[in-house]
Amino acid sequence: MKIYPAIDLMSAMTVRLEQGRYERKLSYDISPREAAAKWISLGAEYIHVVDLDGAREGRPVNLDVLKDIVSEAKDVPVEIGGGYRSTDDIHKALKAGAGRVIVGSRAFRDRSFAEECVREFSEKVIFSVDAKSGEIMSEGWERSSGSGDIEMIRLFMETCGVKEIIYTDISKDGTLAGPDIANLKRILSAVKVNIISAGGVKTVEHIRSLKAMGPAITGAIIGRALYDGTIDLEEAIDAGKEDNTLS
Q1: For the chain, what is the domain count?
Q2: Can 8 be counted among the known catalytic residues?
Q3: What is the pLDDT of residues 70-125, one digit of tens each?
Q4: CATH code of residue 86
Q5: Looking at 51, 68, 130, 173, which residue is catalytic?
Q6: Is residue 247 one of the residues assigned to a domain?
Q7: Is residue 149 annotated as a catalytic residue, yes or no?
Q8: What is the value of pTM for the model shown?
Q9: 179 part of a folded domain
């Protein structure tokens, strides 16, 4: 299971949101570039970046910051999401050095756009499913779509042949309350898809609990726990490689 240290951007600063709420912003005294350098020095093999300004505005805002992170990351792949709702903007991120672009809101609303993303970018795009109590949230997590998460995952799978998605449990994100294992099991019992899980991780034991779910959980995104120091990245990476899958 892969471990993705997260760098969330707002006004070119490193922040975290609690439960996706912009008024519950936590700021950290480390620049995005410094954060990337720190996580890579501790063994990070991937960097996950979210442009929170972009998610709210519907267009990339922090491309210059992305370039700084990519420059620091060198050969470590950087993925970015937040406001990527056109192929032109996806091209901009890839040109800035992103290895992969995360697409969410528009792909669910516009099936032809989702198909175009897969056709044009293939593995350089991954779809994100952001949900609260099983309901899809969009526009920077501020608007309910009225659709269910399983419905969205099935749409991506059936329309685009998607085999892996990022799933963010908004109710857990930034809370350090632990991932919602029962919710993940609900999804995996309904659809056969690989999931990179985001939301709630605080300890190495949380990583082990995700890993124990089996090979369908292919990754874990960790944010606040790293910045607050409740988890050690090197230990998390090791835990992700442990053979502790439940039989």
Answers
A1: 1
A2: yes
A3: 999 999 999 999 999 999 999 999 999 999 999 987 888 888 999 999 999 999 99
A4: 3.20.20.70
A5: 130
A6: no
A7: no
A8: 0.91
A9: yes
